[in-house]
Design a protein that fits this description.
Elements (H helix, E strand, L loop, with lengths): L9 E8 L5 E6 L19 H8 L19 H18 L9 E4 L25 H4 L1 E6 L3 H11 L4 E2 L5 E3 L12 E4 L2 H6 L9 E3 L1 H17 L2 E9 L7 E7 L2 H10 L5 H5 L6 E5 L17 E5 L4 E5 L5 H17 L3 E9 L5 E6 L5 H5 L5 E4 L2 E5 L2 E4 L3 E5 L9 H6 L5 E3 L2 E2 L6 E2 L10 E5 L11 E2 L2 E8 L9 E4 L1 H10 L1 E4 L11 E4 L12 H15 L2 E6 L2 E2 L7 E2 L2 H13 L7 E3 L6 E3 L12 H4 L3 H19 L11 H9 L5
Parallel strand pairs: 3-4, 4-9, 6-20, 7-8, 7-12, 10-11, 11-13, 15-25, 25-29
Antiparallel strand pairs: 1-2, 5-6, 9-10, 12-13, 14-15, 14-16, 14-17, 17-18, 18-24, 19-23, 20-23, 21-22, 26-29, 27-28, 30-31, 32-33
The structure holds adenosine-5'-triphosphate, oxaloacetate ion (OAA), calcium ion (CA) and manganese (II) ion.
Calcium ion binds next to helix 10 and strand 19.
Length: 659
């Protein structure tokens, strides 16, 4: 024992100086000779392991089959647990080998949980035994955010806790989606149902190739010590809820989907049963370039018949979110429900607004509104009963995020939130949202209830306003215009926005992008199918369409500037309140858009873009240039009929620019 210490004594730094010149540590003896750390009763543990075992209580939904004493589970619980494990084992089974994997729940780091033998219905101990069937695959099933943080920080490089408690992660080489690597199995059913060919996002692959990739992903996942399994839901509409299972290799992926999909209650999880759709996300493990159809090391493959998706060679988590969205774009229209790439919110009086727009146009920013209830920021369904969010979370762009401009999103970045590819101070862990060192596409994924006025359950009545957002870098579209139904359809099918220089290599001047239904990368049927449904619903509900330019004013990108977010918010406020409907309007040349002469809180001169350009000739040229691009783009749709109404089709074709 050290001189200054005492086996069960306290010690403190004394003032006296010991022989060697260091401060002398003095000990104080308690009166009765026995010295306790505190006045409470002693801990009921003899060893450190016993002490640790006191720390954690078992919670029902994440309990492994049975604890070692067989104590906690009732018989039916045990059966249910067994079924659950069998279902996961079936998900992970190889399609070519008779022996499936031996799955066991729990962290392999906790050795005590690895059983010596797990009776498994897939396990046939005959001649077909392979090494992979002899090992255990540990399943980390629906872990909590806290558990996933620990997994990420312990095992995944680039995982850190930021100053506000978010989990900062890196998505690896890919920091955005890879639409050119997304494939869909073409078979008898999808042959006729889906949109194939020019303009379609559905790059075909055959069933056999899908199975090759599936086996590759499953084998990779089973080769790991542990895999993450999430069982969750899509769609808040209780009648059209889809059960999804996500099998992934990273805690980052599991936490991302925990946030983005709807989280089941413990009861819902107990009765989850067999999923309607399963994702196998092999993340960094690439596809094989020798495999037919593979054109890179990345492949995202959807098989609607098998209700499965395989991801190889990308760790960008958005592939899972948007892959499932594609699936919803197939499943929902079959039930006469329209799926939408839109944000959605609701006023105090129950007035619902949809915000359509391509990536970066403001869906998340503008649907997150302190004065309104948030139904969702990105993916919705519109059925006979109204609107429902498909997701359980939001996915906000973080580049240049500021507390002042977007307080609700700022405050949502806390414990539980996944922060992708951001840069932070190595010591304080303060995030620098202006830093693009990793990517411009930095993102935050958080559960929707992190927004204080989220509407839970995330459903609402039929929309009153349908707002089409375009970030026009040419600076010629008005900040706001009121649309006729035909114009709404024209702009919905066109799906215009502009890329600006700097965002993508080789883009020197604003580049128009047209993406049908504001989400061509995710639609599965021909755009006119969705357009017809939207027209029918808007007509029936008497919804008003609006076009809002969240892009440039006073000149194109380079000479003008982006419309100030507070002005766009004022415009949106006026749409919601109904005051904009009452405004006076005039019609613009070329695009024939109805623009208001006044909007409260917005400088009048910016409402007609021509006023903001000093060079009127340049304005006219740019306007005609953009109109020409719209016309060219729409050519592919002129031979299609939209809905049953011939008159509407003609009106839509006539609702574009005229020059
Ligand atoms: N006038 C404006 N209106 C809307 N957003 C603006 C405006 N000016 C700047 N911005 C910025 O533009 C970005 C809009 O991104 P947002 O996350 O809302 O896109 P999104 O439509 O939800 O895209 P995605 O589908 O990729 O999630 C935000 O960073 C926002 O701060
Ligand atoms: O999917 C993503 O990466 C982000 C998103 O919401 C979109 O691009 O529309
Ligand atoms: Ca968004
Ligand atoms: Mn989106």
């Amino acid at each position: 024992m050290a001189e200054n210490g005492n086996a069960n004594g306290e010690f403190s730094f004394g003032t006296g100086t010991a022989r060697n010149g260091l401060a002398k540590i003095q000990t104080h003896k308690k009166q009765n000779g026995i010295c306790h750390d505190d006045s409470g009763p002693p801990v009921k543990a003899q060893t450190i392991d016993e002490l640790h075992s006191l720390q954690k209580k078992r919670s029902a939904p994440t309990t492994p089959i049975k604890d070692s004493q067989g104590a906690f589970a009732t018989v039916s619980d045990e059966d249910r647990q067994k079924q659950q494990l069998q279902s996961i084992s079936a998900s992970l089974a190889s399609l070519t080998r008779e022996t499936g994997p031996k799955v066991v729940k729990g962290d392999p780091a906790r050795k005590a949980e690895t059983p010596k033998h797990v009776p498994d219905h897939h396990f046939t101990p005959a001649f077909n035994v392979s090494d992979s069937s002899l090992k255990f695959t540990h399943i980390l099933y629906n872990l909590s955010p806290a558990e996933l943080y620990e997994q990420a920080i312990k095992h995944e490089q680039g995982s850190f806790i930021t100053a506000t408690g978010a989990l900062a992660t890196l998505s690896g080489a890919k920091t955005g989606r890879a639409p050119r690597d997304k494939r869909v199995v073409r078979d008898e059913t999808t042959e006729n149902d889906l949109w194939w060919g020019k303009g379609s996002p559905n790059i075909e692959m055959d069933e056999h190739t899908f199975l090759v990739n599936r086996e590759r992903a499953v084998d990779y996942l089973n080769s790991l010590d542990k895999v993450f399994v999430n069982d969750q839901f899509l769609n808040w509409d209780p009648q059209n809820k889809i059960r999804v299972r996500i099998v992934s290799a990273r805690a980052y992926h599991s936490l991302f989907m925990h946030n983005m999909c709807i989280r089941p209650t413990p009861e819902e999880l107990e009765n989850f049963g067999t999923p309607d759709f399963t994702i196998y996300n092999a993340g960094q493990f690439p596809c094989n370039r020798y495999t037919h159809y593979m054109t890179s090391s990345t492949s995202i493959d959807i098989n609607l018949g098998r209700r499965e998706m395989v991801i190889l060679g990308t760790q960008y988590a958005g592939e899972m979110k948007k892959g499932l969205f594609s699936v919803m774009h197939y499943l929902m229209p079959k039930r006469q429900i329209l799926s939408l790439h839109s944000g959605c919110n609701m006023g105090k009086d129950g007035d619902v607004a949809l915000f359509f727009g391509l990536s970066g146009t403001g869906k998340t920013t503008l649907s997150t509104d302190h004065n309104r209830y948030l139904i969702g920021d990105d993916e919705h369904c519109w059925s006979e009963n109204g609107v429902s969010n498909i997701e359980g979370g939001c996915y906000a762009k973080c580049i240049d995020l500021s507390r002042e401009k977007e307080p609700d999103i700022w405050n949502a970045i806390k414990f539980g939130t996944v922060l992708e590819n951001v840069v932070f101070d190595e010591h304080t862990r303060e995030v620098d949202y202006s830093d693009k060192s990793v990517t411009e596409n930095t993102r935050a994924s958080y559960p929707i209830e992190y927004i204080p006025n989220a509407k839970i359950p995330c459903v609402g009545p039929h929309p009153k306003n349908v707002i089409l957002l375009a970030c026009d870098a040419f600076g010629v579209l008005p900040p706001v215009s009121k649309l006729s139904l035909a114009q709404t359809m024209y702009h919905f099918i066109s799906g215009y926005t502009a890329l600006v220089a700097g965002t993508e290599e080789g883009v020197k001047e604003p580049q128009a992008t047209f993406s049908a239904c504001f989400g061509a990368a995710f639609i599965m049927l021909h755009p006119t199918k969705y357009a017809a449904m939207l027209a029918e619903k808007m007509q029936k509900q008497g919804a008003t369409g609006w076009l809002v330019n969240t892009g440039w004013s006073g000149g194109r990108y380079g000479s003008g500037s982006r419309i100030k977010l507070p002005y766009t918010r004022k415009i949106i406020d006026a749409i919601h309140s109904g005051s904009l409907l009452e405004a006076n309007y005039k019609k613009t040349e070329v695009f024939g858009l109805e623009i208001p002469t006044e909007v409260e809180g917005v400088p009048t001169e910016i409402l007609d873009p021509v006023n903001t350009w000093s060079d009127k000739k340049a304005y006219q040229d740019t306007l005609l240039k953009l109109a020409g691009l719209f016309k060219n783009n729409f050519e592919t749709f002129t031979s299609y009929k939209i809905g049953k109404d011939n008159k509407l089709t003609e009106e839509i074709l006539a609702a574009g620019p005229n020059f």
